[in-house]
# Entry
Amino acid sequence: MHRFSRMHLSPEAAMGCLDAIDLEEKSKLAEGISLIAVIDHRRDYLAAGYSSMFSYCTGRLRMSEDRAVRRIEVARVTLKVPEVLEYLADGRLSVTTACVLAPHLTPETATDLLAVAAYRSRQEIVRLLAERSRPALGETLPLDAPTQVEDSSSLSAPVRIDSLAESCAASGGESSAEPTPPALANSRRRGRVSPSANGGYDVRLSITDEEHGVLRQATALLGHAEPSGDPALVYARALKHYLAHLEKQQLGTSRSASTRPKSGTTPGSHAPGQVNEPRGRGIPKALRRQVWERDGGRCAFVSTDGHRCEATRRLEFDHVVPIAQGGETTLQNLRLLCRPHNQYEAERVLGKDHVASKRELAQRERAKTKAAARASKARRQVRDEALQARHDDVFEALRGLGYEVARARRGAALVDTMPVASLETCMRAALTHLARPLILRSERLARCSA
# Structure
């Protein structure tokens, strides 16, 4: 008999044990989600070598993608509505039904909404939310109001994962207590990548008419190399060329050119002048490629227990010893870090207050730059409108004086070279310009007759 065998229990004892285990499991679930909320809010996963709470759940806790996303969504809701944990602990809500309620829960509506949603199924809650969103008799919905309740719990994991990533990116790498509803990401994504049964991947794309025209042109130009016109082959060729373009744009020369040792050097050494290593913040592309290849195009952050971050997206070049503390732009002092770990290291080395003040100052500068750009655009638009008005006035005046359309347009074109001149000045310059050939001709005739 194995240790999990319970065949010796009576029906009453078996059901009683199962009830107790079920209640304990639900209580542990609520406690676990509360811990996820704490770790996500404080970003404790960064010190453990993970770039996000999602990668921590899937990498360290070995959760499936769907399970991790659902728990993170519910955990973030509990930061503003802690009552959700009590409903999870006693079984009045499940993680799935809590995900359906999450976009609609606010501190003001939580008490009433949670009470009516207790012990209901997912479909019942969706129907309940749809009924609550309907306008009362005589009322009208705003034009931008949703026409139906989005059930984010039924979306695939990739869509929900992207939603969580966008909500983190929007808050500067910090977890947000109010993430973007995953259902909204469904309208933004036009492609899906999923594993196929034959060991490859299935890529499904929805493209516009313009993009389809580009695809047809590329297929036609590749007719000699790919006579079948298979979109998958065109897609693979395009990605390979685009990857080479991105590498050259961000890392300089090609991989083979950068790794080929020069005469008189040994692998791992650098000839004088091969890579310029300035003292400033600028990093030459050749040096960028060396750092990229050394770190394997992956975040180089390693936690105290030896776990290295697996992030390969949104990588940034970081100085191990900051420039502000005398660090230099050398191969030994550079590394690749994902954006969350780059911010984490900056806060750890320079202090949270210092980084927060620098970030606030940068945000103010960006706001000033944007405001100045908008003001400049508005002034340019007003100036363009005034310039066009003077252009039209000069053209109509020249036409009224009997000039042909072509000559009137030529005279009115001078207005574009005098943006601040008055209408009288523009008119005088146009008449002088149009009369100049006649003046020159009369001068030549006068010289000839003399």
